[in-house]
Write a structure and sequence with these properties.
Length: 332
């Protein structure tokens, strides 16, 4: 699949806001990213609000500068780390505390006035991208997941994106998959806390491994270091258990799993598949297919673009914003 085109027509400005970076790009209606339009700026939990806003602005302006004169910018799609509040049109990313309550429509209105702004959770954008262009294309009931610094996901049912009451449906990383003890917080037993890249590294270190990064974990596991290998198996097993639960609950056809940590071992997805089958109770859920992402890391930005180009798949109507009636585009 090519994601580069020289002759776009209707163009969406796509924005992906995460805990370590914000990306912006121009994407045409076929899912092609315009040459030179993809720009990235840093974010980070230690950044102040003005610093974060300036990163967003720089990425957006750099992308807009690549807009061809012969094409039309038709809308802005935003995928944001959560939680979000679609009723208010705001995002409060967990890993960006200074940006809590950020109003994308008002902020972006200064940069691209007069355009509709549609926001969804970043995980749901990834699910929409896989359904539009990627590994779950053609499947009516699917889930997409990212296993990386954190773990996120999104759900498609009956060919429609499931956003939920507040816009936060799909937070698979916050599903609890371990028994909580008296000393545990609710967060301690979530999939993200157990299976994400940094948490897997921390678990290995706590069990006697002396490395410091996911890359070192991968290298040591490949050489047969037992604790490094055990950390990878622990992560994949937890992901598989979560998929088994989701497949049982939602009767899914296919789950696409992407993200940098899935490359920690050549058999990571196979370990996930084995864990899924081991955790299945009912036969109907055993048919779920687990596959890798087909979008080579472009899922978040393509999913943000799909909020504009594939508005027909956005699912049920979100309540109108509670305070500012001018923000109707965020509630579509």
């Amino acid at each position: 699949m090519s994601i580069i085109s020289d002759s776009p027509r209707s163009i969406a400005l796509a924005i992906d806001l995460g805990g370590t970076k914000v990306e912006a790009a121009l994407v045409d209606s076929e899912g092609a990213i315009l040459p030179g339009s993809l720009h990235r700026e840093p974010t980070g939990s230690g950044a102040g609000r003005r610093e974060l806003e300036e990163s967003i602005d720089r990425a957006v302006r750099a992308s807009i500068e690549r807009m061809p004169e012969t094409s039309a910018l038709v809308g802005v799609g935003v995928g944001s780390a959560g939680p979000i509040d679609l009723g208010r049109g705001t995002a409060s990313p967990k890993n960006l505390p200074e940006l809590h309550g950020f109003d994308f429509a008002t902020h972006l209105g200064r940069l691209v006035p007069g355009l509709p702004v549609v926001m969804r959770l970043d995980g749901t954008c990834i699910a929409l991208a896989e359904h539009w262009l990627g590994a779950t294309r053609g499947a009516a009931h699917s889930m997409a997941m990212i296993v990386s610094t954190g773990i996120g996901g999104g759900i498609i049912l009956h060919d429609r994106l499931i956003s939920g009451r507040s816009g936060n449906a799909g937070h698979i990383g916050q599903v609890q998959i371990a028994t909580r003890t008296v000393s545990d917080s609710a967060d301690d037993v979530t999939l993200e806390r157990i299976a994400s890249g940094p948490r897997s590294v921390a678990w290995a270190q706590a069990n006697g491994w002396f490395g410091g990064t996911g890359e070192e974990l991968a290298a040591d596991a490949a050489r047969g270091e037992p604790v490094a290998r055990a950390a990878i198996i622990r992560s994949a097993t937890a992901v598989g258990q979560a998929i088994a639960s989701a497949a049982t609950l939602l009767d899914l056809e296919i789950v696409a799993v992407g993200g940098g940590f899935t490359a920690v071992s050549t058999d990571y997805l196979e370990l996930v598949r084995r864990a899924v089958q081991d955790a299945i109770v009912f036969d109907y859920a055993a048919d779920v297919i687990v596959t890798g992402s087909a979008l080579d890391g472009a899922g978040p930005i393509l999913g943000a673009a799909a909020l504009i180009h594939r508005a027909d798949a956005l699912g049920s109507t979100i309540p109108e914003p509670l305070h500012d009636p001018r923000r109707r585009s965020l509630a579509r």
